[in-house]
Amino acid sequence: MSDLRATITDLLPGLRKDLEDLVRIESVSADPARHGEVERSAQATADLFAAEGVDVEIVRAFDGAPPAVIGEKKGPEGAPTVLLYAHHDVQPENDPADWDSAPYEPTERDGRLFGRGAADDKAGIVTHLAAIRAFGDDLPVTVRLFIEGEEEVASATLPDLLEQYEDRLRSDVIVIADSGNWDIGVPALTTGLRGMVRMDVELRTLTHAVHSGMWGGLQPDALMAMVRLLDSLWDADGTPAIEGLTSGPAADVEYPEERLRAESGAIAGLEWIGTGSVVERLWTKPAVTVTGIDAPKVDGASNTLTPSSRARITVRIAPGDSADNAIACLERHLAEHAPWGAEVSTTLLDRGEPIAIDAEGPAYDAARAAFTEAWDGTEPIDMGVGGSIPFIAEFLESFPQASVLVTGVEDPDTRAHGANEGLHLAEWEKVLHAEALLLRNLGS
């Protein structure tokens, strides 16, 4: 074990260079102007693994679809087959002025490497690369590779890819490096994730705008109706009031108040919403958020009753529920609570299923042993995640016989998707060691 740790330490400078080179590629899958960068990112990823003896290919579901990298490197005859998943596309950087350094120029500050994709998920790619590189031609398992190029835009063609390349991806164990750990110094296996439904709702109360002085007090305008409708989504304590959504218990994990406030960005004195333990509210209960409202701007607003209004609602779905149920419950709630006879129309934008993984069996034992060794005796916790990774459901459905391990490089201050996304370098070294140990444990 100590030899493997030393090997990872020796490889670390080269691995960091590989990561920095990937971060410099602006592989923003949501930006059509940078589709060429997504292609370049796929090629760079393929080249890195090819240099380690992996038989790689860039594939896509159809002409013009985003590029994914698949590959294989054989281990001993009869050894388990392990599929390593990550994604090479990244979120937009949004306003560069919000960053303390250029988003696509990897920069180290205070033990973190900052840059878009430095953690989510190009560090995941290099974590897989490190495990393969550490063993050279003595892999203890057969490794298969799937590096996706559209995870940040909802993995639209992933089901097609899993079907088309099923024989080349089928494995005994699937390692998905797109989550994180509980804290600096405390590893975790992600065993539950909430699902998601995003829906636009539009209310109309008038056929056209009218003067607020002439008709105000009699005619409800659409903004007034929308405020009343949105308010109906929560009880007085902030608990979601949509009937029919599922809630469940969570692991007995303490989330200290000081850490919670620091990591959530809450202002001083802010009161928490909902009921139950902190991790239940974050992991195993539904949440409702209004993520956008169309309304006249304050600057330049006139004395007018607004005829129509639109809002975007996101519902996070607890494990044990389903997207179908959440859609039906939300649509029913909106129709029943539209005030004063306002006309309601809804548009479903996207959906993702919640995940609950039964993390028992030899593969999970191997993972827990690897994490405990890499973190010098600290055992991993089974962690839920309040966010959604819908593609995991696709893997569970496509490969029901496989043990799915959801791991990752992130920590509570990674700030994935936001400005100043950063990778904790010392913690990343432990992640690299853990994955190499995992492959060794699975091989034995």
**What's the CATH H-level superfamily name of the largest domain?**
Zn peptidases
Major sheet attributes: 6 strands, mixed
Helix content: 25-40%
Shape: elongated
CATH class of the largest domain equals: Alpha Beta
Instruction: Figure out the total of helices.
Output: 13
CATH topology of the largest domain: Aminopeptidase
The CATH architecture term of the largest domain is 3-Layer(aba) Sandwich
Arithmetic mean pLDDT: 96
The strand order across the widest sheet is: 1-2-6-3-7-17
- The overall strand count is 18
Short description:
The protein has 444 residues and is an alpha+beta fold.
Describe the protein.
The chain contains 13 helices and 18 strands. A hairpin with a 2-residue loop joins strand 4 and strand 5 (about 110-115). The chain is of the alpha+beta class and about 450 residues long. The radius of gyration is 24 Å and the shape is elongated. Helix 4 (about 160-165) packs parallel to helix 12 (about 390-400).
List keywords for this structure.
444 residues; 18 strands; six-stranded mixed sheet; Aminopeptidase; 2 domains; Alpha-Beta Plaits; alpha+beta; 13 helices
